[in-house]
Amino acid sequence: xxxxxxxxxxxxxxxxxxxxxxxxxxxxxxxxxxxxxxxxxxxxxxxxxxxxxxxxxxxxxxxxxxxxxxxxxxxxxxxxxxxxxxxxxxxxxxxxxxxxxxxxxxxxxxxxxxxxxxxxxxxxxxxxxxxxxxxxxxxxxxxxxxxxxxxxxxxxxxxxxxxxxxxxxxxxxxxxxxxxxxxxxxxxxxxxxxxxxxxxxxxxxxxxxxxxxxxxxxxxxxxxxxxxxxxxxxxxxxxxxxxxxxxxxxxxxxxxxxxxxxxxxxx
Length: 267
Known about the structure:
By secondary structure, the protein is an alpha/beta fold.
């Protein structure tokens, strides 16, 4: 497959690496676009193509990955709309808040589009990616899901849930990092050096997540296994709840979802 990645920033470059890792493409089958292509020099040395002109970049692509900011999307689509072959070229969008209707309105109703919402853990092959589609074939969906599965896990959802996915999946990385940061600060308070506290907190968080993913269990099931009557774990949990831990997380996720839903509109 020949692919073009419009907007080769962090996510775009992670996708490029994933395309090669999944053996979907070879480096010379992938064209990366960026306004300043000098920043792609190291990728060119690895065999990737680089192009500043998006119209030229999509000429021979089978799949076009759109990885730009919401406020840049309209300009990009207007630039390439007359050069896209909607019958033969698949569009994969990772643009936050941009509904497939935006692409159809500018490019054409018959456009084959898959929306993807990964997170930055793509770099360590532990991303959670949510996918939705419009007009895409099952072959399209299978190919894109296989790609993102090389960088973690993926799930197919309804497009109406993509803003929620942005909050829980993409923003969620920051939320969980902040809780790990808080746990490490607590560790310093009780006597650990900062580096030790971060290492202990991060590995403990990783272990907690793996208990759920590998056992396919509910968090409360695993919590019950480590809470004993009048014990230190339940005392700490109850104090955190009294201080609003769960409530704060829920409210933050809801707010992020609402804002994600309006990012494109506000662009």
